[in-house]
Design a protein that fits this description.
Layout lengths: L5 E6 L6 E6 L7 E4 H5 L7 H23 L3 E16 L2 E16 L3 H14 L1 H5 L13
Antiparallel strand pairs: 1-2, 2-3, 4-5
Helix pairs in contact: 2-3
Length: 142
Amino acid sequence: MPVRKANAQWQGDLKNGKGALNTETKLLENTAYDFGSRFDKGSHTNPEELIGAAHAGCYSMALANSISKEGFKVNSINTDAKVYLEKLEDGFTITKIELDSIGDVEGIDAATFAKHAEQTKSGCPVSKALTGPMIVLNAKLK
């Protein structure tokens, strides 16, 4: 399987600094992020928004796959993700991710859809990653 790559650069201190995000596909190329966009109402992106997009995308694909394997025709799965960032005693923490998903699936009943939706919540790769993957750090000083 492929290894996906992304890069982040940050210049300056937390409140006055600025950053740029890049992905190997160039979808994000020097995409700005900053303190205001992360902790207030800014116009740039932020890590939590990107986690939400990744989680919603992965969940939608995984749910469509689970339902399709049962022989149902999936017209669409639309998932919104809300990522809650809160200041706790030990610093800022993502405390909750709320997924709101709507499926347009032919021939499925609500109970069967709900069963697949719940199984997918813990089974999609991004959900698994957000519950505690091994993180390997390679850090060095320039």
